[in-house]
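Page 47, continued from p. 46.
Same chain as before, 155 aa.
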Amino acid sequence: MFRAVISGGRLMTHDGKYPIHTDGTRVRYVIAVEHGDPVIFVDQYVSAQDSGTAGGASVVKYRALDSHAQIEGQIACAGEVDVNAGKVTYIDNQSGTFQPTGRHFAAILHLVARLRILSEKAEFAQFVARPQNGDVDLGALRKLLSDEVWNLLRK
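Result:
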């Protein structure tokens, strides 16, 4: 997972060269607040065309994060996203380690909408944890009605 750059309403690779493109694969993200500003960390996939331009590697070499504990600042939310050409097409709050609440998720949805990185056709799902025997990843994803979420975000 790498620090992402936001440019022109698109989520870009750490160096700002290529739009993130997960090609239908859901990848991990973490949003933290560092010195009062939001910072997005995301697994950095790029399109096949951009990968060829970058020398055939999906990710240009850069310091990676293995754990949320490596992030400076306060973690605001974490989960999974799907990104198409730099626009978030799916986002949830399914992160067993951090366990963001619905309140965290709502705040992050407002943030990503304000940053203009959400696709107009974005889908949303909220993870409801039901930990058992110390396993925090147990629970269920509940798909949210996209039209209702968009109506709330536009208020």
